[in-house]
Amino acid sequence: MSEADAIRAGLYSSDGEQVRIPVIENVDFNEDIGTWTIRMRDAMSTSDTQDPIEVKVEDIEPLGEQE
After folding, report:
1. Which residues contact residue 12 at a Cβ distance below 8 angstroms, ignoring those fewer than 6 apart?
2. CB atoms < 10 A from the CB of 25, how many?
3. What mean pLDDT, rounded, does the chain reach?
4. Sheet with 22-30, edge to edge strand ranges
5. pLDDT at site 62
6. Residue with more model confidence, 10 or 60
7. Residues 43, 21: contact at Cβ < 8 Å?
8. CB of 54 within 8 A of CB of 39?
9. Residue 66 pLDDT more than 50?
10. Which residues contact 38 (CB under 8 A, 6 or more apart)?
11. Which neighbouring-strand residues pair with 31?
12. How far apart are CA 55 and CA 6, in angstroms?
């Protein structure tokens, strides 16, 4: 899956839906376990100390690339 696909999946997850206007802070892929970690925060938050939300997305191959 591409980084854009992982971000999209993270935004549509239950954790990602808690964010009204997402600001993506970081996207990491852990190749050993096949998981993307997307760190985001809400641009509408009035708190300066808001902790970022971390969303884990399991990597899947696009249908055309599976054996």
Report:
1. none
2. 12
3. 84
4. 22-30, 35-42, 53-58
5. 57
6. 10
7. yes
8. yes
9. no
10. 6, 7, 10, 16, 24, 26, 27, 54, 55, 57
11. none
12. 10
Whether the predicted model's global pTM rises above the 0.85 cut:
no
**Per-domain boundaries in the chain:** 3-65
Q: Which amino acid would we find at residue 16?
A: G
Cα 17 from chain centre: 11
> Which two three-digit tokens encode residue 13?
């997850």
Structure tokens at 44: 């509408």
- Could you report the per-residue pLDDT of 25-43, keeping only the tens digit for each? 999 999 999 999 999 999 8
Q: Which residues contact 54 (CB under 8 A, 6 or more apart)?
A: 15, 37, 38, 39
Q: How far is it, in rounded angstroms, from Cα 30 to Cα 15?
A: 20
